[in-house]
Amino acid sequence: MGCQCANREEENKSEILKEQNEEYEQEDNNNFNSNSKEGIFNLEESNQEQNQEKSPSQNQDNEKDNEKYNEKENEYQENEAIKISQEKSNKYANYPEKMLTLINNIRADPVSYADTIEDSIQNITEEQDRNDESKTRIIYKKKVKVALNRGEIAFKDAADELRGMGPLPPLELKNEICVPLPEDEEEIKDSSYLREQVKVLREKNNIDVFFKDLIKIPEVSALLMIVDDSEKNPGKKRQAVLNKDFKYIGISSKFVGKTFIAYFSFSK
Length: 268
Prior knowledge:
This protein is α+β, with helices and mostly antiparallel strands.
């Protein structure tokens, strides 16, 4: 009997302890869930308040930062473009002197240069037109690619003309008739720029003929200037370079952005 009572008491104690533990666990869970929900709510509320308080100023700061970054980036790009343009201009700084030498050599011995023209015919080729796949275009391809109009026929005609010529006196480089160079690439494309500059020069100096050239390699520039196989006013450049009455030449050149530009002017 004593053992049975003792066992029952132990069982009753165990049940009481079990019930108490379950109550404690349930209370802990309720507290945890309540605290967690309250914590999440408070965190969301806090974030919303911070966003409401800081969002306008942060947006303004971000916009200012973006503007400053874009300004610095644009300034950097512009400086880099100017730097590259100056480096290229320095590389081809002797272009006027080289062109003057080549032109005067051609004038001194036109017959010999006729052979040079005919030897250059081998550099003429045809390629597919990028704008119209059904067509081909004639180009001169040696270090550069230049579109031609008549191609080989123009080269032969120029060579024949030079063979019928005698020596001509050299031209003298005259700074007073050099055409000022543009600062913007758009001005290169604008034909009115050159006309306006020459108009100003003509108020003080006599300029008979002027034109522009975009080929930076003097030897190729001189060759295609003499052949002058252009669609508009073909032969105009050749007639100016080989005019026996002209005494002076103005040559100005440089890189404007990525584009090389040279202006030629002639006077008696």
